[in-house]
């Protein structure tokens, strides 16, 4: 659908000239000879941007701007002015106009400003749509910290919902940064133990002797530094859930004691003789291949089968790229609030880079990337220059991914986007590479709403 530009000026030649220029750029042009007529059109028609003179009969450009800023705060307004009213135009920009032009108007610069303004409005609308989708997903899911609509994530969360109310031990596997701890959180929160304690232990962060003491506690005087009795994590988790992260890192002695807890629900503190009984559900996570660790003799096979009653594998981000726009939007909203920023979305180049990158660090890496971009951005959107260099270079303009079932129009759009990226945004060069005229390319850019500026 063509974007609609309203041109408001009491000089007929200027109105018709600007209207013709905008129509050549691929827009639909509406005209008004004064502010009152323009205001009436804004309330009746679908208007995407307004270009208005300041000095007009019936309703001035300043008053029209005030009405638009109040009723339609997202509608871009460009001011036209004679040389004698530049100060007034600057004042109008403080009132909400995005730019001003002195007459006679530089049409090339005007076209650029219009394109950028329309593109910015599109980005804002897309960001708001994605925010709404994220909120709707959260409302539908019983656990709202995991965001995803891809087939793999929907299947994973369906299994989590099915498994959570049971007593079964769960082994969560997946690469570093995929969100295994969030899955463990969801299992506890959706379980019948949700009112009980949820105790987390990061096994890789502790030495073998410290880990045993942390898990099972110790008696006073059992070793140097044991100045008083200490309850272990299993005691603290009684009636709830214990989450053992990086379970593949525990030593052989601790594996034996853990196996006994799983079999008998009993253990002794370090240096103690009294058996302590607990009612604890065990959820574990690892990024190691435990069957291979069993072959190497590093992990007990009997313990593995006790832990692996239910196996949940969290997919890496590169296998669920449908979820990246939702995650980007969620993180952008979060870090806008935390850093008192008001970024409205991501430029098309930034989006392409984020979707092209394989994310070896998974969600953790994406989260850090968006936080950095929000802090470093100097405009109202995240640009590709705000991303880490290796992510910004993730696009490969020398190839175009075309899926079977894609329409010719969609394929043409992807080819134009990739060619423009390969030509660093140079439209003349891109048109030459594509074998079409520059006007034809420009018309297609407007038709497909491609932000090439």
Automatic annotation (TrEMBL):
One of its GO terms (cellular component) is cytoplasm. One of its GO terms (molecular function) is sequence-specific DNA binding. Residues 4-118 form the Response regulatory domain. InterPro entries: AAA+_ATPase, AAA_lid_NorR, CheY-like_superfamily, Homeodomain-like_sf, HTH_Fis, P-loop_NTPase, Sig_transdc_resp-reg_receiver, Sigma_54_int. GO terms for biological process: phosphorelay signal transduction system; regulation of DNA-templated transcription. It is found in: Cytoplasm. Residues 146-375 form the Sigma-54 factor interaction domain. SMART domains: AAA, REC. Its main location: cytoplasm. Keywords: Activator, ATP-binding, Cytoplasm, DNA-binding, Nucleotide-binding, Phosphoprotein, Transcription, Transcription regulation. SUPFAM superfamilies: CheY-like, Homeodomain-like, P-loop containing nucleoside triphosphate hydrolases. This is Regulatory protein AtoC. It comes from bioreactor metagenome.
């Amino acid at each position: 659908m063509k974007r609609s530009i309203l041109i408001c000026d009491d000089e007929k030649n200027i109105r018709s000239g600007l209207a013709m220029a905008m129509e050549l750029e691929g827009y639909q042009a509406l005209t008004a000879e004064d502010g009152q007529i323009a205001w009436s059109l804004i309330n009746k028609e679908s208007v995407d941007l307004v270009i208005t003179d300041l000095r007009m009969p019936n309703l001035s450009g300043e008053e029209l701007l005030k009405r638009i800023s109040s009723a339609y705060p997202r509608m871009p307004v460009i001011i036209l002015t004679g040389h004698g009213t530049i100060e007034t135009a600057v004042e109008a920009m403080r009132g909400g106009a995005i730019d001003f032009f002195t007459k006679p108007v530089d049409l090339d610069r005007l076209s650029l400003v219009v394109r950028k303004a329309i593109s910015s409005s599109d980005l804002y609308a897309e960001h708001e749509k994605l925010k709404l989708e994220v909120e709707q997903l959260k409302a539908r899911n019983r656990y709202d910290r995991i965001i995803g609509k891809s087939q793999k994530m929907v299947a994973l969360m369906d299994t989590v919902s099915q498994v959570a109310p049971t007593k079964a031990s769960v082994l969560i596997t997946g690469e570093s940064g995929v969100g295994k701890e969030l899955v463990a959180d969801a299992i506890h929160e959706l379980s019948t133990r949700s009112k009980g304690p949820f105790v987390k232990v990061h096994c890789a962060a502790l030495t073998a002797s410290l880990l045993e003491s942390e898990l099972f506690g110790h008696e006073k005087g059992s070793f140097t530094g044991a100045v008083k009795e200490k309850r272990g994590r299993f005691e603290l988790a009684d009636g709830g859930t214990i989450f053992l992260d990086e379970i593949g890192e525990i030593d052989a002695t601790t594996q034996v004691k853990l196996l006994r807890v799983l079999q008998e629900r009993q253990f002794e503190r370090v240096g103690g003789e009294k058996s302590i009984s607990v009612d604890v559900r065990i959820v574990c996570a690892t990024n190691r291949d435990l069957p291979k660790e069993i072959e190497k003799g590093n992990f007990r096979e009997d313990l593995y089968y006790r832990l692996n009653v239910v196996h949940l594998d969290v997919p890496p981000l590169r296998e669920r790229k449908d979820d990246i726009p939702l995650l980007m939007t969620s993180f952008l909203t979060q870090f806008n609030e935390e850093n008192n920023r008001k970024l409205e979305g991501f430029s098309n180049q930034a989006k392409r880079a984020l979707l092209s990158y394989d994310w070896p660090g998974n969600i953790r890496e994406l989260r850090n990337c968006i936080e950095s971009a929000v802090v470093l951005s100097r405009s109202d959107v995240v640009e590709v220059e705000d991303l880490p260099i290796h992510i910004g270079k993730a696009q490969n303009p020398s190839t175009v991914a075309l899926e079977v079932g894609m329409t010719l129009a969609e394929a043409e759009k992807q080819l134009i986007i990739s060619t423009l990226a390969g030509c660093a945004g140079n439209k003349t060069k891109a048109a030459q590479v594509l074998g079409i005229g520059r006007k034809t390319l420009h018309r297609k850019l407007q038709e497909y709403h491609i932000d090439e500026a």
